[in-house]
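Researcher: Next entry in the queue.
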Amino acid sequence: SAMLGVTIVLSGAAYARNAVWKDGITLWEDAVDKSPLDPMGHYNLGNAYRAAGLKAKAIEQYQFAIKLRPDNVEAYNNLGLVYESIALYDEAVKCYKRALEIDPLIDKPHFNLGAIYLHRGMINDAHRELEKAIQLNPNHARARLLLDRILNTVK
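Model: Structure for this entry, 155 residues:
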């Protein structure tokens, strides 16, 4: 009988946790509520919001993650992705460049800059950034695809 009571209590606790764990948003909102000064919680909540298409909320969380940890390269990169997705290209470029000031050896911001430069017709800049992305990550298929597009256009 005592074991049954423990089982019921634990089942109730598991049920309550399942509500929190039902998706990334509720999971990371719970984490941020419990540890509001943890930059990774805000970063991950930003990722969950971005994945759900909640762009304004994602921007807010990435900005807060950066405020808490100013060297957060991934938060700058992902903030740039959100800005790019709403056609705020100048803001996106600033984010990618800031990420590369912090760590020039990460391929994602180079690729993202290259893609924007290509979109803007800045072929030499695009070529340079895409080459750098491939140099840092030889398996970067999307960078190779865009670089091939540039090389086939220039011929």
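Model: The chain has nine helices and no strands.
Researcher: Noted, moving on.
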